[in-house]
Design goal:
This protein has 16 helices and 17 strands. It is an alpha/beta fold and about 425 residues long. The chain has two domains: about 120 residues, Rossmann fold (3-Layer(aba) Sandwich); about 290 residues, no CATH class. Strands 9, 12, 13, 14, 15, 16 and 17 form a seven-stranded mixed sheet that branches. A five-stranded parallel sheet has the order 2-3-4-1-5, with helices on both faces. Helix 3 crosses helix 4 and helix 11 crosses helix 13.
Length: about 425
């Protein structure tokens, strides 16, 4: 299988020159090891997936680094948190940068050790699964914004996928881009390995079969406001256990919890986060949508399409080196959306699927799988006009429409492949 260029490559090279250590985090199988080997082919590479090396790193960290001196790449470094104190000593002893390149699929444990040991000495970046741009070989690497300026620049290198539903169904794990790799076998192995290795390490889960049921229940709710009680009832566990297990999925890069937009003006807004899986192929596997054709016309098509769009937008930020958590939110509440029914004016819940905030400007986004967008889909956007100190910018409906178009003066329809 040919290597697919990653958007992080240039930034990884810059970090290697600017920091004594560089850490690449991300979910299992997103391509961290391959990226580090490709960008730094002359470095010595050691993986703590090897039980012998893991034991040595845990029990004799100083000797481990003597046998594997910098510059060195250490993969799955979270398996030996004891090693960080010795990495810190090596960094403090040298004036050179680029001593260590580290990777880890469990930032749940990594972040605590790094903040304590390597603060100021390390550059951290997140590698997600392949983005739509990377799959298409498109080198455009600026984060998505629903503006005319973004659209004009994006159009210069734009490539439309032959079948967007096939791309959504396949998912973004690099190994699946090989046409010879069987889709269901890959995900079956992935889930088995993730549950039996990562989950056992992150928490003392006694019944792994129930955890598998939990993952399925969570996948069926991607794109929805997170309701711990509903999941707990479905799998027969208490809410505390479900919250703990959800934190495991989040920490290991399987899901993202999109927080609600907060404002004192929007007092009636819902405060719970929305749940999104980071990979749509994994959602399809867990919820048993086995072909892209069935997915496109099935009951899960809307939530999975929304999950894909949100995931691609997050990747556009991460691949540019921006922490998407500070830019994105959503809104749902009973603020200022009124409809007439039987001659009576009713106030109903308004929802904005995604709000991007940048430089004091709020960009509202609606996500629809439709091939045609309508202005009425964006009626909730007006809620943002009430927020003092913020300005509502250009809004958009992201959908499967054939081209960019204006729905209103300040609202665009944007095809999904423009992300």
């Amino acid at each position: 299988m040919d290597y697919i260029s990653r958007a992080l490559e240039d930034r990884l090279r810059r970090y290697e020159k600017a920091y004594k250590a560089t850490l690449v985090t991300g979910a299992r199988q997103v391509g961290k090891s391959t990226l580090l080997k490709k960008v730094f082919p002359d470095r010595k590479y050691v993986s703590l997936d090897d039980p012998f090396l893991e034991q040595q790193a845990k029990e004799a960290g100083n000797m481990f680094l003597t046998l594997n001196p910098p510059p060195v790449t250490i993969d799955e470094v979270q398996r030996a948190k004891e090693l960080f104190r010795y990495i810190k000593l090596k960094c403090d002893e040298s004036e050179e940068n680029g001593l260590f390149c580290l990777s880890g699929s469990q930032p749940f444990h990594l972040m605590q050790n790094i903040s304590e040991s390597l603060s100021g000495r390390i550059g951290i970046m997140e590698l997600a699964g392949l983005s739509m741009r990377e799959c298409m070989g498109d080198g455009f690497n600026k984060h998505f914004l629903p503006t005319l300026e973004y659209v004009a620049e994006r159009r210069k290198t734009l490539q439309k996928p032959e079948n967007i539903w096939e791309m959504i169904h396949k998912g973004g794990y690099p190994e699946l881009q090989d046409g010879n790799k069987e889709w269901s076998s890959f995900y079956a192995d992935y889930v088995k390995t993730y549950i039996e290795r990562d989950v056992r390490e992150l928490a003392a889960v006694q019944d792994l079969n129930v955890f598998r049921q939990f993952m399925i229940a969570a996948a069926a709710r991607t794109g929805e406001i997170l309701n711990y009680s509903a999941i707990a009832s479905e799998i027969g566990k208490d809410v505390g256990t479900v919250k703990k297990w959800m934190s495991i999925l989040e920490a290991s890069g399987i899901v993202y919890l999109l927080e609600p937009f907060t404002s004192n003006i929007l007092k009636r807004a819902i405060k719970s986060p929305k749940l999104y899986f980071r990979d749509t192929g994994l959602v399809c596997y867990l919820t048993r949508w086995l072909t892209s054709e069935n997915l496109a016309y099935g009951a899960m098509s809307g939530p999975v399409f929304e999950t894909f769009v949100v995931s691609e937008i997050l990747k556009s930020y991460a691949n540019e080196g921006l922490d998407y958590r500070y830019f994105v939110s959503y809104y749902r509440g009973r603020d200022k959306k009124r409809v007439k029914k039987d001659g009576e004016t009713l106030e109903i819940e308004a929802e904005i699927d995604l709000i991007i905030e940048e430089n004091g400007i709020l960009y509202p986004i609606e996500i629809k799988k439709n091939t045609q967008a309508k202005a009425i889909m964006t009626s909730a956007f007006a809620v943002l006009d009430e927020i003092s100190g913020k300005k509502r910018g250009m809004g958009a409906v992201i959908c499967n429409c054939p081209d960019v178009g204006a729905l209103r003066e300040n609202i665009l329809q944007i095809p999904v492949w423009y992300i």
